[in-house]
Write a structure and sequence with these properties.
The protein has 12 helices and no strands. The chain is an all-alpha fold and 260 residues long. The longest helix is centred in the C-terminal third of the chain and has 27 residues, at 184-210. It starts with a helix and ends with a helix. Residues 1-9 have low confidence and may be disordered.
């Protein structure tokens, strides 16, 4: 017979699982895809079980706001336009997405968009900037969560990159790479993003070296660039479901850090 303590423990586990799945959906797909149906499917629970933890989706979002400050929930029209456009650009492409569709999705007139953005290109730029900032924020959270375990950070970071590659908004990182060639604003943001990734991986490698986890003769900067180049190459090459090979990628790069 299940006692009250066991029931409470199970309920707490489900509550935490829902929060984790909700954060994963926002990080990899965008807040538009944060639906109760999607959450219960990924959590493998019933809608009734969801409502035993949260009274509504808004209740869930409010708790997410309380436990993290890295999400930009649409608190005003400008933010909401960015979040809606981000999803539409990712799903339909830049050319096939018009300002009328974006405006309608937010519930405003098309002409009202120009009070916030000069053009569709300006809106796309802001979507790209938002996406890069979101990726850096998530990286920081992984590092903070597993700060004393370089190997765990490496595993979680590789897992995140693999899952992100399958998300609709991953196209925005590719667009940032191409836009950086002719757009100074995006160039600066993208270079900052790349420098951030390399520096964080360098810190990770050097932390592992100091603990005797990786080869002490490693050139940490070159090793970090190998990581970035590896994922950039995989994302630009033939279509591969990186989620299906995330464990192999972890073992491959971990072996490289051990033996190089």
């Amino acid at each position: 017979m299940t006692n009250k303590k066991e029931v409470f423990h199970i309920s707490a586990e489900i509550h935490e699982r829902i929060l984790k799945i909700a954060k994963d959906i926002i990080d990899t797909e965008g807040i538009k895809f944060l639906t109760i149906s999607r959450i219960v499917s990924k959590c493998e629970i019933s809608r009734r079980t969801f409502y035993e933890s949260f009274t509504s989706k808004e209740d869930l979002i409010n708790e997410l706001k309380e436990i993290t400050n890295r999400y930009e929930f649409p608190s005003n029209i400008r933010n909401e336009l960015i979040l809606k456009a981000l999803v539409l650009f990712s799903q339909n492409g830049y050319i096939n997405t018009d300002m009328e569709t974006i405006a309608t999705s937010v519930g405003i007139k098309r002409t009202s968009i120009y009070a916030y953005f000069e053009s569709k290109e300006d809106l796309l730029e802001n979507c790209i900037l938002y996406e890069l900032e979101k990726r850096m924020a998530f990286t920081k959270e992984i590092i903070e969560k597993y700060s004393n375990n370089p190997i765990h950070i490496l595993r979680e970071y590789i897992r995140y990159n693999c899952r992100y590659s399958n998300s609709p908004t991953s196209i925005l990182t590719s667009l940032a790479r191409s836009f950086a060639l002719n757009n100074k604003r995006i160039e600066k943001a993208y270079n900052n993003f790349i420098d951030f990734r390399i520096n964080k991986i360098v810190d990770l490698i050097e932390a592992g070296m100091s603990k005797g986890l990786f080869n002490n003769n490693l050139n940490s900067i070159k090793a970090a660039k190998v990581y970035v180049t590896m994922f950039n190459g995989l994302s630009q090459g033939p279509s591969i479901d990186l989620m299906s090979i995330e464990e192999q990628l972890f073992k491959m790069y971990y072996t490289f850090l051990m033996s190089s």
